[in-house]
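Usage

Read records sequentially. Each one opens with the input sequence:
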Amino acid sequence: MRRIGIAAAALLLQATLAGAAMAQDGFVWIYDRYLDPDPFQTRLSLVYAIPETDAVQFIATCRIGAGGTYATIELGADIGSLAEGAPVDVRILGSNYRDVITGDVIGVGAEVGLTGVSLAVELDDPIWQAMQTSLELAYTAGERTDHSLGLNGAADPVARFVTDCRDMPEPGDVAAQPQPAPPPPTAQVFAGCSQLGTMRTTDTGGEASITFVNRTDGFRGVLWIDGNGMPQPYGNLNPGESYTQQSFAGHIWMITDGPGNCLEVYVPAAGASVFAITAPNIDFGPE
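and closes with the structure output:
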C-alpha cells in the first residue's frame, strides 16, 4: 500500500467537507459476520447501504493474508474513463484525519453493484479511528468528483468489525486460537451448511427484510428452508445482482451454486439487513 504527500489533498477537500451533508438519506451502517470453525471460511463485513435497494457506498471485508489480518475497503466513486484494475490515488479527509491511499479501480461498466475503488488497509490504520470520531469523510478518486461518506451510527459497527478482524487467528496459528463467541440472539446468525440437515424454520419473530447481494463471479440461488427442513426456491442471482426478500426473524435461508450445492446459510434478525454473498464455489467432486 503506497501513500503520498497529503498537504495539497487537504486543501482540495477542506471545502467539500465543510459543505457536505451530514449523512445520506436512507443509508445505514450494518456489520455482518459469518462464523465458521475454519477461520479461513469466517467472513466479517461492514456495509454502508440503503436496505431493500441496490445502493451501496462502502464495503469493508476482513482478510487473512500472509502477514496477518487486514481489511479491504470498497468505496463507490466516480472513476471516469479509468480501466478496471487501474491504480488510483484516493484522497480522504475527516475530522483530524487526512491521507491519500493508493487503490485499484473496480466495477467498471457494472450495471449492478459497486463501481469505484478497492483499498487494502491495515487494522491499525488511523482511518478506522477517524470513522468512529468524524461526522463524515470526504474522498476523491484521482481527479474526479468529490464524495461524502456519512458516519452517523458508524462508531459501534466499525469498532466491532476492527476488533473481530484483529482477533482472527494469524496464518499458521489457527489451531492455537479460540473460536469467536457466537452472536447474541438479537443479531443476525450465520450457520454452516454442515448443520443444514438438522435445521428447519420453526421460530418466527418480527418482520425482517433481507437484501441479498451476489458479490461472486458465479450464479447463486436463494432458498428458504421450510418447517419440514425442505428447501423452497425463492430467488436467482447472477454475478453483481441483488434483490430484497421479505421474511421473519428466525427463518432459515440457504445460498447455493448453480448445481444446487449449499454454500452458506443465513438466519436474519428482525429489521433490515444486507447479506453480501461472497462464498466461492466448492469442488464437491463429480455430481
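Summary fields computed downstream for this record:
- Residues 125 and 283 are 36 Å apart (CA to CA).
- Residues 1-23, 179-187 have pLDDT under 50 and may be disordered.
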